[in-house]
Amino acid sequence: MTDRNRLSVTQTAPPVVVVVNQKSVILGLILTFLFGGLGMLYATIVGGIVMIILSSIVGLMTGGLGLVVLWPIQMIWTYLAIKNHNKGQARAVARAIR
User: Fold this and answer.
1) Neighbouring C-beta atoms of residue 68, cutoff 10 Å
2) For the CA atoms of the chain, what is the radius of gyration?
3) DSSP letters for 43-83
4) In this predicted structure, what is the pLDDT of residue 94?
5) pLDDT for 5 beyond 70
6) pLDDT tens digits along 16-58
7) What is the pTM of this model?
8) Is the Cβ–Cβ distance between 75 and 44 less than 8 Å?
9) How many CA atoms lie within 13 A of 57 on its CB side?
10) Which of 12, 38, 41, 81 is the most buried (most CB within 10 A)?
């Protein structure tokens, strides 16, 4: 038998498809901008509930003026929560394909 007639068999791992549920930063920020704490529920349930309660208290005590301070805080919290969620999803995928 010559080298040309030999069959070379190599084993390869089957392709792996991993589907993750990443959240959209843009959608989260739009929802939070439009709806405040209700929009935060997309990013973080606990954060959304905390900000709904806090916004209600501050809004009633300041006649709504305190919301000018809370609204940017909600936007930043939403951004950080979504980034953290997506990073956690990426770490889970990296562990799964090892």
Assistant:
1) 9
2) 24
3) T-HHHHHHHHHHHHHHHHHHTTTTHHHHHHHHHHHHHHHHH
4) 83
5) no
6) 777 778 999 999 999 999 999 999 999 999 999 999 999 999 9
7) 0.78
8) no
9) 5
10) 81
